[in-house]
Amino acid sequence: MAGMTTSLAGKVALVAGGTRGAGRGIAVELGAAGATVYVTGRSTRERRSEMDRRETIEETAELVTAAGGRGIAVPADHLDPEQVRALVERVDAEQGRLDVLVNDIWGGELLFSWSDRLWEHSLDDGLRILRLAVDTHIITSHFALPLLIRRPGGLVVEVTDGTAEYNAANYRVSFFYDLAKVSVNRMAFSQARELAPYGATAVSLTPGWLRSEIMLEHFGVTEANWRDALAVQPHFAISETPAFAGRAVAALAADPEVSRWNGRSLSSGQLAQVYGFTDVDGSRPDAWRYLVEVQDAGRPADVTGYR
Prior knowledge:
Elements: E1 12-16, H1 21-32, E2 36-41, H2 57-67, E3 70-75, H3 81-95, E4 100-103, H4 123-148, E5 155-159, H5 164-169, H6 175-195, E6 201-206, H7 213-219, H8 242-254, E7 265-267, H9 268-275, H10 287-295
Parallel strand pairs: 1-2, 1-4, 2-3, 4-5, 5-6, 6-7
Helix pairs in contact: 1-2, 1-8, 3-4, 4-6, 8-9
């Protein structure tokens, strides 16, 4: 991100759901661009969420600071309106502004089934998925947007899985997962209409095939040897690090003409072509074009021309 190391100096961001994965990558890259970043989630050094994983919001905040920004970890359950209200009040009291809101709350990896149909799927788990993936975003925007629109130029990024175009034409895993990810795209579209008169912008953003902590563990690899997973899944060659989505958000936040994207469904690979950033290895993986043209088309794995 040459030339962008201080482009967000003085800006304040809230990354809701920044414990791991894309949220962590986004928080760190906003920090690398000079922003103050509030990182929220349920997993702390004192208490783990139902995900029961080792990553914490404190670790993410420390990575933000190490990258050159200022990371502030705030424990918050985004299903609890009073916790979110208190979070936004704290940001207001300490900073007096909010420039970037990233809604990346998810936490449904252990709940959805890859094979159960609607009538077979656990109803409790399915409704919990929707609460985690949809209600959390609504609650957070409800309380954060009044602070964000206090001055023109605010940006809301709704993080999902799949572009609006792809999700409209393809069944995504299962009923509840599909509904959750489509809903997040639409939330960005709707917020865009309501925010435009205040000079603010809302978009949805999807990473490609993300090399998150959970995905790397699924394949039994690390970031250092991730290509070993290609023996099991050759199409994993198109995968990207969480930093790639983070650089997409940092580029949007630094763009004085970001309103041109208002209401749009965007991908990290698409924005890399526009803004010129790369993944950590210097490549620009275009995962969603690859998915349609290679993987879904049944062609052999070959990332030539796609990264």
